[in-house]
Design goal:
Elements lengths: L4 E6 L3 H10 L5 E7 L3 H10 L4 E3 L2 H5 L6 E4 L6 H10 L3 E4 L7 H14 L3 E3 L7 H11 L6 E9 L19 H17 L4 E8 L5 E9 L5 E7 L8 E5 L2 E5 L8 E6 L5 E4 L8 H12 L10 H18 L10
Parallel strand pairs: 1-2, 1-4, 2-3, 4-5, 5-6, 7-10
Antiparallel strand pairs: 7-11, 8-9, 9-10, 11-12, 12-13, 13-14
The structure holds NADP nicotinamide-adenine-dinucleotide phosphate (NAP).
The site of NADP nicotinamide-adenine-dinucleotide phosphate (NAP) has 22 residues, from helix 1.
Amino acid sequence: MGDKIKWGLLGTGKIAHKFAADLRLVQQAELTAVASRSIEKAARFGAEFHAVKYYGTYLKLANDPEIDVVYIATPHVFHCENTLMCLKAGKSVLCEKPMGMNAREVGAMIREAKSSNLFLMEALWTRFIPATEKLIEVIEKGVIGEIINLQSDFGYAAGYDPNSRLFNKKLGGGALLDIGLYPVYLSLLLMGMPDKIKASAVFTGSGVDASCAFHFGYENGAHADLVATLQENTPIEALIKGTKGSINMHKRFHHSEKLTVTEFGKSPEILNMPYLGNGYFHEIQEVINCLQNHQIQSSKMPHSMSMDLITILDKIRKEINLTYEGDDGE
Ligand SMILES: NC(=O)c1ccc[n+]([C@@H]2O[C@H](COP(=O)([O-])OP(=O)(O)OC[C@H]3O[C@@H](n4cnc5c(N)ncnc54)[C@H](OP(=O)(O)O)[C@@H]3O)[C@@H](O)[C@H]2O)c1
């Protein structure tokens, strides 16, 4: 591994574009290669972001000996297969969320990373956003006391198209896995694993959840009320209520730039916490730090967190009867 960490990007869709723009802002990163299913798309993307090389198959990128780490930016259903291919070819991996379609896939990915002694992290960029770091600091200081309730929503009117990634069941479509994952992640980060889960959903004609609402209960009496929808625009905020005060993560809470901290009996304090680039800068920096320190996982987004997250998503899916091809391991 040289002075610069050499990145390969697998997939050239929407998120790959935003990520590649942020990669250019990170001094210790180089965009070494990009791969697409189409050589023409790879060439266009490579030229736009000044990649050193481009490939017309994912396998060629995985086998490029120059690459240190691959960013997987394909639809959810391919995350496991693409990650295993890269790990087996000796590459570290940053994989988009959700890391896999279910706990079985995530377990296989983690086992492969461990046995190959290679870095693997789910690209849960929310964890590395400065406002999230500040949120954790304020809560750990005890400013709002014990958390008793979390309310969070993630909704936008996506426009129903059964063939798009968002609604196509074969591509892992649906609100829960695409955006519901963010409020679930926030609850996990702040409150841990829930003891009780109740969920309900509205389904599209394509058989995925257009909207999904879930309620989590915790042994200590705390609870979380969370919602995700592709049917309407919602505030996309999070309100964390504690015994001594509350914190509002302003829109869009999963990459917030502003927190309002209210201690009971005091004036609210507004904390402006801008992020760099599109916000992906910070997770990229974390990956680079981990690689330079020879870690195979991040202490902030460890393998166990990805496993807990997918375990909750699996339980919600069971409650709403949302299944995908391959759930049974076939
Ligand atoms: N962290 C975030 O903020 C964030 C935001 C959006 C999405 N995501 C995650 O990133 C992943 C990709 O989302 P996206 O919005 O970028 O999707 P997208 O625009 O549809 O791009 C996905 C890319 O995957 C590749 N691909 C491989 N097999 C495919 C297939 N059968 N059908 C369609 N595309 C295929 C394609 O690249 P080639 O044609 O070049 O091979 C395509 O451009 C999802 O898992 C999503 O959860 C994360």
